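Reagents: none. Just compute today. Putative colanic acid biosysnthesis UDP-glucose lipid carrier transferase.
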Amino acid sequence: MSKFRHYYSFNRVFLLILDVTLIAFAFKLSNLIRYGSLEMGYEYNVFFVLFALVWWIVSGFDDYVFRVDRLLPCDKRVSDLLSAFVLHAFILASCIVIFNLEELSRLLLLYTYLSTALLISVSRLLLSQVFRYYTNSDMAHTRYVIVGAGPAAAALFQTLSSNDDIGTKFMGVFDDSVDPGNPLSSQIKGCVDDLKEYCLQHSIDEVYYTLPLTNKEQVDDLTAFADENFVYFRLVPDFSAIVQKDVNMYFYHNIPMISVRKEPLEIASNRIAKRLFDVAFSLAVILFIFPVLLPIIALAIRLESKGPIFFKQLRPGKKNKLFVCYKFRTMRVNTQTELQATKNDPRITKVGAFLRKTSMDELPQFFNVLLGDMSVVGPRPNLISQLDHYSKLISKYKMRHFVTPGITGYAQVSGFRGETKELHLMEKRVEYDVRYMENWSLMMDMKIIFLTVWNMIKGEKNAY
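Predicted 3D structure written out:
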């Protein structure tokens, strides 16, 4: 989508300015409803700046917050916008406590937040409709043709036709020999030699070349023609025989390379951002939550059963490297530590059952995060025995070990937690773990953390 990068950059700036304007309007409107005046006090002007700044930071985690085109599914837009509001409210509430802003009217804050969420959501809806009208009009269309009628051409035609939100208009196919049963046979406008004249007569903007790249002379000739006549010439190589899913293509200097698996954490900047977040989040938990809960949990564990407060166990981490995983002890001391916990497991103590239900037994793992053995969010580290067993039964099981394991994960908040006595349950975990790897973002981590906290509050039926 680099062709439309200029559009998305402008779109982002425009929507950010619009959001700040709507936030300012929401503040004025809320002040008018609460106090009967449009004039806000000094503390509310300062709070407006903080409110807008936090929104800018939060929305920066996810580019989809600033997308109104229909290339992005509606449910994805709504989900990301809702997640942004939740995260914004969480950070804003923290700022109110940290900066001692308790004197602000709670009713005014409620009015402001509700009106801001309503105005921004409605604005996204209206802009989506405007965008739809614009992209369906003739002035927005980019005319394109396809050279070749093979599988790559059919796939390209299907993709561009179903995603006609960026204003593309299909004008035909050019190929020297086409089977009558070919799905594109009705779209043939001529042979490849007819392409140049057709482009000039119909003001074609783009040519997509999907034939094999063995005819260098033809490719060079069409490239020269396109350059001379201000036509964008794009090569669409057919990799369908090699890969059967979405791939990432990038350049190392001037050498094109293809990664057959999408993995955002391959990018160094993403790994650095995730690591910085892990360190900051785990330090906050260790400094502010752990000292309060440790004495209570330690005393409860000791009063019910003899043994250590902490439980240590080797677990496979990134690239199957073993590390010592820390937890609060939730079982009576036993020799069956490689045996997965089951429902009504007699080894689990009453205190341990509560800790497992609320996930508080995982708190010591924030030290693992600081040590770099774990991440706050990632595939849960399974037992060594599970690694040996499931890697032989599930083809993608080892893929989950490409990334650092996490205290919580996408599979866990999606309902796949607890005992895995049936193979399909572990298969679903692996499926969600791989999906997390392929779609990672800081916003996704925020969502998973929020859902984890919510599950801790309400309790989970599969946590035992």
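The CA atoms of residues 319 and 402 lie 6 Å apart.
Action item: order primers for follow-up constructs.
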